[in-house]
Amino acid sequence: MSEQAREQEQGATSPSEPLSPMDVTILKGEVIEALRTVYDPEIPVNIYELGLIYDLDVTPEGEVNIRMTLTSPACPVAGSLPGEVQEKVASVPGVKNVNVTVVWDPPWNLDMMSEEAKLELGIF
To answer: CATH number, domain at 47?
Structure first.
């Protein structure tokens, strides 16, 4: 029996095909929705609307690269929030790998918040 026939018989799958540009866009939207379920415990707004996500890249291979920050280096969840982000994003169907990098430049400030977040917090 050939190796290919053996793999098919054992249910082995071939590497998945790269995502189309449309599928990458859809997956990115689903990743953003997952990020909207993660909250900074000190501010009752999700981290996406807070502007803590500086860069989000989704590759055709399903790899997600996130550059994010925290409200301050002394944030009490500095050790756990990036892991929560990684876990939530990794649970999105189609995501193969997640890389989360915490950066401090530029420093986060209130201007990075979405208008929705500012309205929710009464900041004008």
So the answer is: 3.30.300.130
